[in-house]
Amino acid sequence: MAFIPAKASAWFEIPVTDMDRARAFYGSVLQNDLILEESGPNPMAMFAAEDRTASGDIYPGEPAAPGNGPTIHLSVAAPIEDAMERVRQNGGQIVSPAISIPAGTFAYCLDPDGNSFGLFV
Fold first, then answer.
1. What is the mean pLDDT of the chain?
2. How far is it, in rounded angstroms, from Cα 73 to Cα 109?
3. How far apart are CA 79 and CA 29, in angstroms?
4. What pTM did the predictor assign?
5. Which of 28, 42, 87, 95 lies deepest, with the highest CB count within 10 Å?
């Protein structure tokens, strides 16, 4: 019998070129401070989440070309338009309008390094 995990996503990592800038960007956009962790081989800043099975971090690395690579969707408080404005104000780009689907509403964005991500309400 095949192993089927309870959740398809266990952890994600977003490569960034400037940890301080990325922590400020994601902290402001998500209104959720990223927790700096320097005990491992590389520094990382973890997204604060009660349910760690679907959380992740940013780390010093080389991002994919702008708009390429995987896209993760990050939870934000409604209304989504407020989070979209925080993306703009903090040096990111909005790539799509807010899109409503039965599960909620999302918008595609790019962070200052060009990493693709979605906002999800």
1. 89
2. 10
3. 13
4. 0.86
5. 87
